[in-house]
Amino acid sequence: MNENSSGLPLHHLRRVSKPDTDSHAVSMVHFDRIVTKFGRDPRTAHALLTSRDAQSRLIISREHAYVTRKPHNNEHKLHDDNSLNGVFVNDIKINGSIILKTGDLVTFGHLNGRLITPGSRELQPDSEYQYMV
């Protein structure tokens, strides 16, 4: 297994949703930084979340979410960056942030995300933005 800058195992998110519809969309994100940013703005996102489909593209905020890595214990915390349509872990909308565990399913955005209460379960089998830790 590869190591991060602290010499600890390198963790990542691997795309598990339907195939990329945009050649710029990210399929694998390695957490080799202390902060890894996700969104649709290529100027600020380390991991670009985009789609050729306009409706799918708009469920992602310019600065949607970020993952912080604690160098001393390799803990990875996913933060919703005040996105309009939310961040979901194992189909549950997070409230602020959550510590990621191996095997977690992360989904960025939801068509009706702004109407979904944090803590609610919402299946999204057709999302383009699903990743496995």
Provide the descriptors you would attach to this structure in a database record:
133 residues, 5-stranded mixed β-sheet, mainly beta, 6-stranded antiparallel β-sheet, globular
Could you explain the architecture of this structure?
The chain is mostly beta strands and 133 residues long. The chain is built from 1 helix and 11 strands. Strands 2-1-11-10-7-8 form a 6-stranded antiparallel beta sheet, with no helix packed on it. A 5-stranded mixed beta sheet has the order 4-3-5-6-9, with no helix packed on it. A hairpin with a 6-residue loop joins strand 5 and strand 6 (76-80). The longest helix has 4 residues, at 54-57.
Question: What's the arrangement of secondary structure elements?
Answer:
Elements lengths: L11 E4 L12 E3 L4 E5 L7 E2 L5 H4 L7 E5 L6 E5 L6 E3 L2 E2 L3 E3 L5 E4 L21 E3 L1
Parallel strand pairs: 3-4
Antiparallel strand pairs: 1-2, 1-11, 3-5, 5-6, 6-9, 7-8, 7-10, 10-11
